[in-house]
Amino acid sequence: MMVLSGCLSAQIPDEDVPIAAHERGEIKDADLTGVSAELAPFYGQELAWEDCEGAGAGAFDCTTVTAPLDWENPDEGELELAVVRRAANEAEPVGSLLTNPGGPGGSGYSLVADSSDYAFGTALLDAFDIVGFDPRGVGNSTAVTCYDDADTDAYLWDIPPGERGSEEWTADLEERAEAFADACAANSDGILPYITTVQSARDMDLLRAVLGDTSLNYLGFSYGTFLGATYASLFPEKVGRLVLDGAMDPSTPGSEVGLTQAKGFEQSLRLYLEDCLDQEDCPFRGTVDEAMTDVGDLFASVDEEPLDAADGRRLGADALMTAIISALYSEEYWPYLTMALTDVLAGDPGVAFVLADSYYQRDPMTGEYITNMNEAFTAYNCVDYPEEDLSDDESAFEEELASVAPTIAPYWSSSVDLCAYWAAEPTGVRAAIDAAGAAPIVVIGTSNDPATPYEWAESLASQLGSGVLISYEGDRHTAYNAGSDCVDSAVEDYLISGVVPEDGLSCAA
Questions:
Q1: Is 96 labeled as catalytic in the residue annotation?
Q2: What span, in angstroms and rounded, lies between the C-alpha atoms of 328 and 342?
Q3: 70-91 per-position pLDDT tens digit
Q4: Measuring CA to CA, which of 48, 121, 168, 196 is 20 to 30 A from 23?
């Protein structure tokens, strides 16, 4: 199991969003510096901005940008990128600030259109045109398409027959993985080989240019840090002010990503239980170790006898794992995890499914999947991560997994590799990114971040020739606009005024 490392849920901003003070929809000349003749039609396109349907109070405008399907062969076809802009409140903004919420597969379009007041501080909203976009393969852009909602429900939630790890259980998962991959290939109109971080980073340079900016200002979260670092490696001379929050380590192999994240979520579960045991409504008693044992027993119980939900789904160990992970992304969600675990112990899986649905961005009332994040997540990872032959080390992997995450290890991964059935061959590499010659790049790591552990931020900052590390003491995924004036001031001073924070700056909540 590889965890989505992006923003799991978005809070809808107030309807009374201030309309930007400066004229919206102004057209800037595209930056064609150094652009080849074959790419000039893409870089030279004019944007037609229009009021966004459904966005609040007229403060947002939208457009569509055309990009090559394959940047190495721009004559092979085209795809579309959906872009939304919240214009700056100030009459003379600093410029554009692109953003990505993570995933891979997170919708930057939705982040800006639906949650900009929640995601960005007032200083950034005043100073920048905040630009969100759906990367290729995602949401409102030319998207990866696999199943309808009903088939997605069956794929994600149906419980395999037989005991966990048995031949019957494994065969069902293999059949399910192959059918899903086949559906993605059949319904995605040939785009799967081109849904990669490198291609998406080149799309970002196109967006920079058609927005009229000579350099890229960017705020990326979680997977968005990998996207931003990849951009810096490809276009170091175009790097403006980049902030990478909740950093991924581009040199970490896929198998190690899984181990590190398992360790991170195990530790976050312990931190949650430590806090829970001090609360009157906690369903557990005793020490943290005893509570971890109780959680392990609960996993085993629903694995053996899944709980029936009102909508017909059944909560087994895998769905419970998803619910727990969803809540561990931020201590703000811990009270909901307490509610979910209390109810599951009483035989009611309702709240647990609400948490699990938030992970997959499924509306628990209608059963509609609001985005295609799961499909896009798979598409990017299957092509971005090179194949690893772990057959000789499988037992060692399982032993290490059980050592670093004993409570969640039995339900963390399976021997079935979905990417083995994927229609596109992997083309990515896992290697350090230097981005030599780039302007300072700010990297933020949170001490108890379960999805992108702190050591990844340390590693990325050290790899980047111009990396500047900010450390945040906290129990959550990503740090900007999460309650630390120290982090927020450092980020905003850099993005707005170019004041580079002290390398190694340490911040608390």
A1: no
A2: 16
A3: 999 999 999 999 999 999 998 8
A4: 121
Summarised one tens digit per residue, pLDDT across range 415-455 is: 899 999 999 999 999 999 999 999 999 999 999 999 999 99
Amino acid 270 reads: R
> Is the bond leading into 406 cis (omega within 30 degrees of zero)?
no
244: three-class secondary structure by DSSP: strand
3-state helix, strand, coil in the chain (%, to 5): 45, 15, 40
Q: Which two tokens stand for residue 320?
A: 């419970």
Is 403 in the active site?
no
Catalytic residue, candidates 134, 477, 484, 488: 477
Distance, in Å, from the CA atom of 52 to the CA atom of 81, rounded to the nearest integer, reads 15
The fold of 34-143+215-250+431-508 is: Rossmann fold (3.40.50)
The rounded distance, in Å, linking the Cα atoms of 478 and 131 is 20
Q: Which of 61, 249, 449, 488 is catalytic?
A: 449
Quote the CA–CA distance of 337 and 105 in Å, as a whole number: 25
Nearest Cα neighbor of 124 from 86, 157, 165 is: 86
Domain spans in the chain, listed from the N-terminal domain onward: 34-143+215-250+431-508, 152-187+253-360+387-421
- For residue 34, the 8-state DSSP code is T
Examine the residue annotation and report whether 343 is marked as an active-site residue of this protein: no
Reduced to 3 states (helix: H, G, I; strand: E, B; else coil), residue 18 is: coil
